[in-house]
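Students often ask why we bother encoding 3D structure as a string. The short answer is that it lets us treat folding as translation between two languages. Here is a chain of 462 residues written in the first language.
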Amino acid sequence: MMHPQACSYNGGMARLFPFRALRYDPTRVNMTDVVTQPYDKISADMQERYYATDPHNLIRVILGKHQPKDNDSDNVYTRAAKTLNEWRVEGILKEEAEPALYGYSQTYTVPGTDEVRERRGFIALAQLSDYADKIVYRHEQTFPKHKSDRLALFKATRAYCEQIYMLYSDPTFTAEKTIFESGAAAELEITDEYGVVHRLWKLTDAELIKRVLAAMEDKWLLIADGHHRYETSTAYMHERATELGVDEKAAPKMDANGLPAPAFPEQAMMMTFVNMEAPGITILPTHRVAFGLIGFTGRKFAERAEKCFTVEEIPAEAAGHFPGVANLLKRLKETPGVAFVAATREGDFLLTPKADAIAPLLEGLSPRQRALDVTQLHKVALEGLLGLSEETIRAGSNVRYVREAEEALRQVGSGNGDVAFLIKPVTLEQMKDVSLNMEVMPQKSTDFYPKLLSGLAMYTLE
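And here it is in the second language, the structure alphabet:
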């Protein structure tokens, strides 16, 4: 159900632009060696690997290394700006000669299965707006620390090197047909470290670009990935509009071919747009590992949990952390309704909520929020049973967010975690229902797979 009343945003509309992207020169670098996963998915080990792979890897810009002697004039942000500028001067990065949109497809195997899917979208700029304008909707909470980091990077580099993953709804598939049905071969193909095949098409024909932009004019947008970058870019847009003395909602400039451009550079941000009506969208769960819990034992937790949940112990011979994680996930998937697995060093437990018992802990939340597995996990298990505050959870002081269930169990088995909560993924329909009603889920509620590669195209502000 699309809740059309939530989308009547006082005449606002999505405003998209083609752009002259800054791109790596493929004759100067091996593209596979210079692109990265998004900054917030890069572990310390991945950062080291990217650094070692190629001296022109984008890691040096989007997630550089902090140094002990960093100061106001020489730090991770100033080094990122210097690096980006040097690559432009050297011709490693070149600006495109004409404005374009970029078709973008990703072919991948759904993790844990043999199913192969293709997700299609396109890269363009979009005008930034506040959530209150009801053009762009969010679905997750964000971390202030991450936003301050990205703002410092944006201001130093004057460039957006990573895309925001935006969803929109169009049952007619107009944009996809315009971009992908020409039969032209992709101009770029890269296979990343997860085996995902990324392909890129460049669309420069002015009339075709206008057709795509027109198809998007009446659309609302929903952030799938990139909440921090979106909110940071919007804050920067407000700041720059004030500094420049311009209307942040000013009409676009038009070029000789009738193609629009932002009224001022910071008015827009680079995004990849994916039609949520199309096949190929995969949402994975993000599991939780609670750690640093004083006096915690698995048995005591299971006993305490019986106040709010029906607790069923999963026998060790059926579970066995290695390789029995598949059995745990199978039991979870086969359990109807809301359910979690609590994996501890003393045993693994399947938890299904007792509706009457948990109701007081969910007071003040909308019915759509109360029905979410991730909300019940946070409010009942993390806050109610473990006594962690919402602020503590948001700060990450006692909770880690882990994509791989096996890694979550490994942390518990090694003593680096007290309990791993394995959770089902949020559905796309649940996410739409929450977002379009101007509500948000707990942080790290969704994990869209695969991630958009960073370094395929960049948007420079000067």
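Translate back mentally: Confidence is low (pLDDT under 50) at residues 1-11, 318-323. Keep this in mind for the problem set.
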